[in-house]
Write a structure and sequence with these properties.
Layout: E1 2-5, H1 11-20, E2 22-25, H2 32-39, E3 43-49, H3 63-67, E4 74-78
Parallel strand pairs: 1-2, 1-3, 3-4
């Protein structure tokens, strides 16, 4: 299952997610929108978290963000 992680959650969580899922990260991409365009149909879940747990990165999951992922089934928020 393909999972999107838009913000850098703690390393332990990243490692566990990468072991069990195809993990796509946004915060370290030169062109996050290009990556989203490429992977959007495959994303089933978005795993995110509050800024204090995500190295002060923020990526609000708004309705317009959700609409970009036609097969999205789950949004998990840490914090």
């Amino acid at each position: 299952m393909d999972v999107l992680m838009p913000v850098p959650l703690p390393p332990l969580i990243r490692q566990a997610m990468a072991q069990h899922f195809t993990l796509h990260t946004l915060w370290n991409q030169a062109d996050p929108d290009a990556l989203i365009e490429q992977i959007a149909p495959r994303i089933k879940a978005i795993v995110t978290g509050v800024a204090i747990l995500a190295e002060d990165h923020q990526y609000p999951i708004t309705s317009s963000v959700m609409q970009r992922f036609p097969n999205l089934r789950l949004i998990a928020n840490l914090g």
